[in-house]
């Protein structure tokens, strides 16, 4: 095997690996399978709003998301909106660190 064929093989392998890596980064954790205390991302529909919490449903289950925006930043979520939440699961609640709405706007969450 010469250097040229080795380069072609490596380029082909890299090309095949990139889509798999991108797919792995976009993987969502279903609400029904949330493990405790691990940073993760969940997505779904906002079904109810409370003071500093909301109910999120992804079709596999629903969970209360604790979300207190940083000072001066409004929550601006509405029922029926699709969102992605980055945070951690703890004691039957999901503690949000950030929320991204369907328009791509990210809300940073205050950490108590």
TrEMBL record:
Keywords: Signal
Superkingdom of origin organism: Bacteria
Keyword Signal: yes
Database matches in SUPFAM superfamilies: Hypothetical protein YgiW (SSF101756)
Listed InterPro entries: BOBF_sf
Signal sequence interval, chain numbering: 1-24
Name of the protein in its database record: Bacterial OB-fold domain-containing protein
UniProt source species: Gloeothece citriformis (strain PCC 7424)
Taxonomic placement: Bacteria, Bacillati, Cyanobacteriota, Cyanophyceae, Oscillatoriophycideae
């Amino acid at each position: 095997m010469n250097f040229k064929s080795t380069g072609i093989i490596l380029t082909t392998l890299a090309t095949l690996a990139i889509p798999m890596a991108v797919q792995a980064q976009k993987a969502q954790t279903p609400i029904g399978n949330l493990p405790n205390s691990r940073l993760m991302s969940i997505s779904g529909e906002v079904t109810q709003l409370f003071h500093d919490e909301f109910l999120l449903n992804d079709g596999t289950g629903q969970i209360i998301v604790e979300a207190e925006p940083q000072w001066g930043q409004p929550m601006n979520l509405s029922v029926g909106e699709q969102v992605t939440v980055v945070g951690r699961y703890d004691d039957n609640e999901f503690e949000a660190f950030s929320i991204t709405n369907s328009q791509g706007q990210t809300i940073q969450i205050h950490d108590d």
